[in-house]
Amino acid sequence: QAKLAGKNRYYLFDSEQARNMREHHQSVEHINRALLAKEFTLYYQPKVNMRTGAIIGVEALIRWQHPEQGLLSPNRFLPFIEEHRLAVEVGDWVIDSALQQILNWQQQNIALGISINIAARHLRQVDFAAKLAAHLANYPSIAPNMLELEVLETSALGDLALVSKTLETCRDLGVGISLDDFGTGYSSLTYLKRLPTHTIKVDQSFIRDILEDPEDLAILDGVLSLAKAFGRQVIAEGVETLAHGDTLLRMGCHLAQGYGIARPMPATEVPTWLANWQPPARWLETRQ
Ligand code: C2E
Ligand code: MG
Ligand code: MG
Ligand code: MG
């Protein structure tokens, strides 16, 4: 048994551990190969203003089109490369693919902004902002505000100065920034104050039970006042039903994303979804 200094955890180095480590290395290899073989793809999930019906953008969510296992969701492979250099390479692929997609839609007269999820390992690269600027420079017809970064508060853990500086540079480029999964990390007021974010995304775990759980309602109410004081927008994720939307609207939270609006879809399906999107009449009636 080996105790990891400073952590209240014990690791048993046995054959299972050895096997896990082998599998881990194997996964990194596989993921690297998948990147080269262009097996990754981005799905897109709309984000809307429930009060006006406006579509405010789409979030890009990575998928692995695995030749044998079919479509794999990110939690099946991203955790393996979290601490690995490959997280940066996959992240760069995501940035370029999203910009390419914005351009592609632009050419079809569809002006649609994309938000992308940024891994901590990627965001903490000292040249992250410079590389983002270089990516944008490859697409001169794309206004930087068409791109938004979704970052986790925990990305700044232990290096708030570096991460807030990086995000300030990104913000100054004109790129949008949102704080993802808000409420699940430390929800530190210092982070909220120091990280230059435009939007707070309330984690879906607080939205799911909002119809029956008064504590979740109280949390949402608190986040809304906090956001107002800090001059940030709030978007709810995990809006699974129209009833969730009703409650959110009543609370004054207008921006939403979730299966109740649309599931993540391949890029090719987005234009049809946009053309057919009708905000539920009951939401528009809740205008206040
Ligand atoms: P996230 O950024 O918080 O994304 C929201 C997740 O919730 C997505 O899962 C989405 O499909 C799912 N979701 C959306 N609406 C609903 C709903 O109404 N109900 C429920 N139960 N779930 C909903 P997904 O696509 O499996 O992604 C999981 C996580 O993987 C993301 O959480 C994000 O942290 C990470 N991720 C996804 N794509 C990327 C990427 O390109 N780069 C990085 N670094 N991380 C990514
Ligand atoms: Mg996200
Ligand atoms: Mg989230
Ligand atoms: Mg999440």
UniProtKB/TrEMBL annotation:
GO biological process, one term: signal transduction
Alphabetically ordered keywords of this record: Membrane, Transmembrane, Transmembrane helix
Residues covered by the EAL domain: 24-278
Subcellular location: Membrane
GO MF entries: catalytic activity
Record has Repeat as a keyword: no
Source domain of life: Bacteria
An annotated GO cellular component: membrane
Name of the protein in question: Diguanylate cyclase
Protein's organism: Oceanisphaera avium
